[in-house]
From TrEMBL:
GO terms for cellular component: signal recognition particle, endoplasmic reticulum targeting. It is found in: Cytoplasm. Pfam families: SRP19. It comes from the Eukaryota. Keywords: Cytoplasm, Ribonucleoprotein, Signal recognition particle. It comes from Daubentonia madagascariensis. Gene3D superfamilies: Signal recognition particle, SRP19-like subunit. The keyword Cytoplasm applies. This is Signal recognition particle 19 kDa protein. Belongs to the SRP19 family.
Length: 86
């Protein structure tokens, strides 16, 4: 499983604040629930942890809480979905 925090995808964040993707692909203030919905829609096995917080997130509001755990590989090391290798 990998962990995805909303800050990783937030175009309002800088790289120093935790954004991990280019601004052109980031979205405005994503929530963990939205990330879970998108991952589930493409067929990934996901688990939402609502009370987890990203360590660099200074805002402790409920909308910024949560992380999504996504399974990319099976226990034998094979990919769950070929189109998502990492």
């Amino acid at each position: 499983f990998i962990c995805i925090y909303p800050a990783y995808l937030n175009n309002k964040k800088t790289i120093a604040e935790g954004r991990r993707i280019p601004m052109s692909k980031a979205v405005e203030n994503p929530t963990a629930t939205e990330i879970q919905d998108v991952c589930s829609a493409v067929g990934l096995n996901v688990f939402l942890e609502k009370n987890k917080m990203y360590s660099r997130e200074w805002n402790r509001d409920v909308q910024y809480r949560g992380r999504v755990r996504v399974q990319l590989k099976q226990e034998d090391g094979s990919l769950c979905l070929v189109q998502f290798p990492s």
